RNA sequence: GCCGACGUAGCUCAGCUGGUAGAGCACUUCACUCGUAAUGAAGGGGUCCCCGGUUCGAGUCCGGGCGUCGGCUCCA
């Protein structure tokens, strides 16, 4: 047989040759450093036979930044962790231990709970294993054999995995530790130069909260100590960009214990908020949306009718009032439907686009709160479009266009990745309804030529949706904009319009938020820009620093000259150097130092970051006008 | 909600085995009148998250609660 190497040359091999055989045929050094085989994007264990004619790329320890090569290293590291834990904690039961983007984890059921301070001990044990050295051996076994083995070892989680496993079952053994595993794994532990256990967490078996909660140990591993250090430095940098830290630091917002999950917005934070609100208002008007306002508090009767009560009762804030149970609205749609129903609608009025950025409340689980990114009180740039079936496509296309415009304006288009969510188990409507609405959304996103992932079963109970996600500083994804096609709620709330045939029809309802929630969007903006906002949303755009007391008047005049911008004069009794430093720390885009040498003909302008220039006021105006 | 960690001045943090709190920055005042990332000095500032318990005595030990952080679950 033969395989094709990356340089397109062909390598002749005996039938049944493995990846390792191929590496040996090329050279002993390559064989020694080989980590895994990649073929057409698929990864394969070195110990497995190659296919005739297959293109083959052998990754080595030198591909230390390759995600697949890293995953193999980390997967093997997870096995070392399990071996160490088994030795240190007799009676522990092992579950699963995969690599993840930033490292790996392994889930255990400990006889006695362990604590974070136990991690160093486990880490030492792993280091001992590394010092001794480990080789991985792979074997294939029959399901019955595998099951027998884990029954004997009293490993119920492994038994369950064997029972539900598909395809051939393989074992990997290092030292005296054998694990059920699909692989691939390293040949031996030599390439593992840095392992660090990072945290401890509870995690439900198979991700289901009805199952037992296991103890998950997180760790990470690299092909070099320097890579680990670089990773830790990156985490440190992300910590500096954290909006929960920058928010209070830049005087934008803060939280209070007496209202968890609801931000208190400071004047400077409101500048950013209002910049987004102004943009929203302006564009909504331009794009034919009608601003409306609906109540904050509703009889729960409404939520029962809409279907929300059955699906999200535990997340709705309730207010008992006499005999009646009221609720703070968790969303705007039912209110907008009542508005739609307030008079007999004609097809001539459609599409009808209601927009409202009202305050919403959702009683989110305590453990899920996360600054502005997961809050209990928030405002969506919400809108509900009522339209006929023929109009649905155009409306959705227009929403994509609008979304692209907004994300471009804010400089975050590249951050967004899309997801199409299809029918969930718990849902309203018939399969035919869902076939139809899912098809429409899929066609729309395909028409945009946008890359997206399909999230089966993740749709809303009333319809499929397209969500746009952005990552925070640590790379955790958050749902931002959303477009949802709803063929159910209008029926439940009795929305109809008169068609040209003089008969009543049910409108389609498209729910959409483009920023998502203002809170979350601002949170992501803060982390994305590290607090150094683009000029047009910066809370303070220009700071004027008079060199001495004699220059105060001139500084104030300059501020008044630039009255259309947010300009502050810093005439504190501090050195110029000090005031510049403070302006830099506050991440103000422009600083103008004004002293004896300055005039309208020549201003000393310093940009955020330190770049300096002398230019006349007129030129500065021109420059600012472009931002 | 669940697992683990944490909660001391506005912020960042120190406070050993229990003996009624400390630094830097910030703030106030005074002096300096200043040219592109920290001028100096003095001063004020604490329900040590809350409630209960142990103890002669609790920031410190124990129990409960709240909040925050890292995960899990959830996220219309």
Keywords:
35 strands; Ubiquitin-like (UB roll); RNA-binding; 19 helices; Threonyl-tRNA Synthetase, Chain A, domain 2; BirA Bifunctional Protein, domain 2; 4 domains; 5-stranded antiparallel β-sheet; 627 residues; alpha+beta
What does this structure look like?
It is a single chain. With 627 residues, the chain is an alpha+beta fold. The protein has four domains: 2-57, Ubiquitin-like (UB roll) (Roll); 67-241, Threonyl-trna Synthetase, Chain A, domain 2 (Threonyl-tRNA Synthetase, Chain A, domain 2), CATH 3.30.980.10; 283-527, BirA Bifunctional Protein, domain 2 (2-Layer Sandwich); 540-625, 3-Layer(aba) Sandwich (Rossmann fold), CATH 3.40.50.800. It is 34% helix and 27% strand. The protein contains 19 helices and 35 strands. Strand 7 (99-100) and strand 8 form a beta hairpin. Helix 8 (243-249) crosses helix 16 (518-529). The chain is globular and about 80 Å long. It binds one RNA strand of 76 nucleotides through strand 12, strand 13, helix 8, helix 11 and helix 18.
The CATH homologous superfamily of the largest domain corresponds to Bira Bifunctional Protein, Domain 2
Structural class label:
alpha+beta
Main sheet overview: 9 strands, mixed
Beta content comes to 25-35%
Evaluate the radius of gyration.
30 Å
CATH fold annotation of the largest domain: BirA Bifunctional Protein, domain 2
Highest-level CATH class of the largest domain = Alpha Beta
Q: What is the first-to-last residue Cα distance?
A: 63 Å
Oligomer, anyone? Answer: single chain
**Broad shape:** globular
Assign a percent range to the helix content: 25-40%
What's the helix count?
19
Which CATH architecture of the largest domain is right? 2-Layer Sandwich
Mean pLDDT: 95
Number of strands: 35
**Weakly predicted, low-confidence segments:** none
């Amino acid at each position: 047989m033969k395989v094709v190497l990356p340089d397109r040359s062909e390598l002749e091999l005996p039938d049944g040759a493995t990846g390792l055989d191929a590496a040996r045929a090329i050279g002993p050094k390559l064989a020694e450093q080989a980590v895994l085989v990649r073929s057409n994007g698929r990864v394969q264990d070195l110990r497995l036979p190659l296919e005739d004619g297959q293109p083959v790329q052998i990754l080595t320890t030198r591909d230390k930044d390759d995600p697949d090569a890293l995953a193999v290293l980390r997967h093997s590291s997870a096995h070392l962790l399990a071996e160490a834990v088994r030795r240190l904690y007799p009676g522990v039961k092992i579950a699963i231990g995969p690599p993840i983007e930033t490292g790996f984890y392994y889930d255990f059921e400990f006889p006695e709970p362990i604590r974070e301070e136990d991690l160093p001990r486990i880490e030492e044990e792993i280091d001992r294993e590394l010092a001794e050295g480990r080789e991985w051996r792979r074997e294939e076994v029959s399901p019955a054999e595998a099951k027998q083995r884990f029954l004997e070892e009293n490993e119920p989680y492994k038994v369950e995995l064997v029972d539900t496993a598909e395809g051939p079952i393989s074992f990997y053994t290092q030292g005296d530790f054998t694990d059920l595993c699909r692989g691939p794994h390293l040949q031996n532990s030599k390439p593992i130069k840095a392992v660090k256990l990072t945290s401890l967490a509870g995690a439900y078996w198979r991700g289901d909260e009805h199952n037992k909660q296991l103890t998950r140990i997180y760790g990470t591993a690299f092909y070099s100590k320097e890579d680990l250090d670089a990773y830790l430095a990156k985490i440190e940098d992300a910590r500096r960009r954290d909006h929960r830290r920058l928010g209070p630091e830049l005087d934008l917002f803060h939280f209070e214990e007496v209202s968890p999950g609801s931000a208190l917005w400071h004047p400077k934070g409101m500048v950013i908020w209002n910049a987004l609100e102004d943009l929203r208002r302006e564009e909504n008007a331009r794009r034919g949306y009608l601003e409306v306002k609906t109540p904050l508090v509703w009889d729960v009767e409404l939520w029962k009718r809409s279907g929300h009560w059955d699906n999200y009762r535990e997340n709705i804030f309730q207010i008992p009032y006499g005999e009646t149970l009221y609720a703070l609205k968790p969303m705007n749609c039912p209110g907008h439907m009542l508005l739609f129903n307030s008079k007999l609608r004609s097809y001539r009025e459609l599409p009808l686009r209601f927009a409202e950025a009202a305050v919403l409340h959702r009683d989110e689980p305590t453990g899920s709160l996360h600054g502005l990114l997961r809050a209990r009180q928030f405002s969506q740039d919400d809108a509900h479009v009522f339209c006929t079936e023929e109009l649905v496509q155009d409306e959705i296309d227009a929403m994509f266009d609008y979304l692209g415009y907004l994300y471009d304006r804010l400089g975050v288009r590249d951050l967004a990745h899309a997801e199409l969510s299809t029918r969930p188990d718990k849902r309203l409507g018939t399969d035919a309804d869902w076939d139809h609405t899912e098809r429409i959304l899929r066609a729309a996103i395909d028409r945009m030529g946008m890359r997206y992932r399909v999230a089966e079963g993740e749709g809303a109970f009333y319809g499929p949706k397209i969500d746009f996600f952005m990552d925070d500083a640590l790379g955790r994804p958050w749902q931002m904009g959303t477009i949802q096609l709803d063929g159910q709620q209008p029926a439940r709330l009795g929305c109809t319009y008169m068609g040209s045939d003089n008969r009543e029809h049910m409108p389609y309802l498209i729910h959409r938020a483009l920023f998502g929630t203002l809170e979350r969007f601002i949170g992501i903006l803060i982390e994305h820009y590290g607090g150094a906002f683009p000029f047009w949303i910066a809370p303070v755009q220009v700071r004027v620093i008079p060199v001495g007391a004699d220059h105060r008047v001139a500084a104030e005049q300059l501020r008044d000259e630039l009255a259309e911008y947010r300009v502050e004069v810093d005439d504190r009794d501090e050195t110029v150097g000090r005031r510049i430093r403070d302006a830099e720390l506050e991440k103000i885009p422009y600083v103008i130092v004004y002293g004896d040498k300055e005039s309208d003909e020549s201003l000393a302008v310093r940009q955020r970051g330190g770049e300096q220039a002398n230019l006349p006021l007129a030129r500065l105006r021109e420059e600012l006008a472009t931002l």
